[in-house]
Batch of 2 targets.
Target 1
Amino acid sequence: MRFMLAGILALLIPFTGTAQETQSSPTGWIKEAVGNLNITQVSFSNWTQGGENTFAWQIIVNTKFSRKGEKLNWTTSGKFSFGKAKLGKSQFRKSVDEIKLESVLTYRLGKHVNPFLAATMLTQFTDGFVYTDTSRTKISDFLDPGYFTQSVGLAAAPFSTMKIRLGFAFKETVTRNFPAHYADDPATPELETIRFEVGMNSAMELSQKLSETVRLESKLALFSNLKSIKEVDVNWDSLISASISRLVNVNFNFRLIYDRNVSPKRQIKQSLAVGFTYTFF
């Protein structure tokens, strides 16, 4: 397990080396970092039709570091999002919280299909709660759970806008204080804090420009432990972004997750926001 975690960190965190390599070889790395700030505010004063004051904010930063060599291509991407919302007299509650890192190393053998090595990490910044009318219950925290996947296999790019990967994979679900929700196997008497699975992993990425101002980014990741079709984990994240001006964007995000170990039903989250966008580099 320690060897795996060391390999994950080596793949997922090349940022220091990236900065040094960029200085010595300016054309070696392609760097992208885009930030979005979305704010929603509604207030009422002597409003006879009813309603509650609302304030919500959300920050999203997407990064991508890629380098193409003669044979090796290395791409590391990250998505960092966090936001809170306040309705009426209630306290601010977390509405968005995600840290996602993915690193893919591809060795070019042919024009269409090539071997790859990939690692991903998914977790959150801070604690999460389930709320009732009178109380709240903490159910998650940073790296509690944390999802790690390592895969090796074949990658293809059938179109310039699409990338597909399929390979043999390991998946670890790591917890500390909340194993019952995410990592524990109820069929055993022990309380497991780490769930380790072996299976197959596939990933599809689509980046399509729908018009001069509208763009679609979609990622679908599947993991199967090869036991049952009902135990295929699904993580589908799609974003449609429309540029109103150089700094103003409209974003629609759709997220679907299915993990039978966490919930027997699919989880869906969607958001529509207007906000400010800034490209750092």
Target 2
Amino acid sequence: MKALIICVTLATFALFSSCGDDSPTSSSMKSYKYTGYDSTGQKVITGYLWIDSVDSSTVKGSWEFKLVGNCENLGPQIGKGNFDGVKNSNGNMSLNLNPGWIDNNVFLIGSFQNSYYGGDWNYVGFPGVINTGSFEAHRVP
């Protein structure tokens, strides 16, 4: 009976401790907690970026963001998807959250270091920049 109680307790602990954060993890991915702000500095988006690969100049990964504030014209950056990007030797990185789209794109343009990526997001369509704001993404240990 004592062994059964210990097993149930450990199983319950494992279940609840794994539910504390909804970010998927993988040893091959680097996870970043993302926060996006509108042009006035109000938080409007939270979520995660998962960087799968970074080589000398290209970046690939996925993202999942949700709306947490009130802002119009955010473009297709609510939901989830894959991104492609480029990085230079100075640490600047630009990600396209909607690769393969000719219009209706969201770009994250900023400075990248091992534990931090921050800069500006731009929602761009055929007319040009439709909306812009800032973002920061901190590496999840």
